[in-house]
Amino acid sequence: MCWPCMPRLKVMSEQDLDRLYTKLKEVAGSEAYDVSHAARTIAVFRAAIEYGVSSMGFPLSTYLMSKLLTVTLGIMAGDESATYEDILDDFEEENQFRH
After folding, report:
1. Which residue would you say has higher pLDDT here, 92 or 79?
2. 71 shares a domain with 50
3. Are residues 26 and 63 in the same domain?
4. Structural domain of residue 43, as residue ranges?
5. Is 43 inside any structural domain?
6. What local confidence, expressed as pLDDT, does residue 7 receive?
7. Is the same domain home to 67 and 30?
8. Residue 73 pLDDT > 60, yes or no?
9. 62 is a domain residue
10. Which pTM value belongs to this model?
11. Residues 1 and 51: beta-carbon distance below 8 Å
12. Residues 47 and 69 placed together within one structural domain of the fold
């Protein structure tokens, strides 16, 4: 799978992920495309779901989406303990069980 804005690295560092996130935000926020903001959001969300399902599987992808939704709702409600900082802790490879 080739993503035009993804650095061509076999293993990505946190800085690489930050650059990818920044590039995705730039592309999604660009006015150069004649599509609605909802369509841009759907495109980024769809790509994330497709990649997540193909790399992590459907159950883990939906679990991650649930965690993201829960944290986002907490942030919107003003919960100061709600943060994205440790959201990936459950998904680190060393914490995964082999089936």
Report:
1. 79
2. no
3. no
4. 16-56
5. yes
6. 46
7. no
8. yes
9. yes
10. 0.64
11. yes
12. no
Establish how many alpha carbons lie within 13 A of residue 75's alpha carbon, considering only the half-sphere containing its beta carbon. 9
6, amino acid identity: M
Cα(28)–Cα(53) distance, integer angstroms: 22
* Inter-residue contact 88 to 97 (CB < 8 Å): no
Mean pLDDT of the chain: 81
Strand, helix or coil for residue 9: coil
Condensed to tens digits (0 to 9), the pLDDT of residues 34-43 reads 888 898 888 8
Concatenated DSSP letters of 27-95:
HHH-TTS-S-HHHHHHHHHHHHHHHHHHHH-HHHHHHHHHHHHHHHHHHHTT-TT--STTTTGGG-GGG
**Assigned domain for 3 exists:** no
What amino acid is encoded at 58 in this protein? F
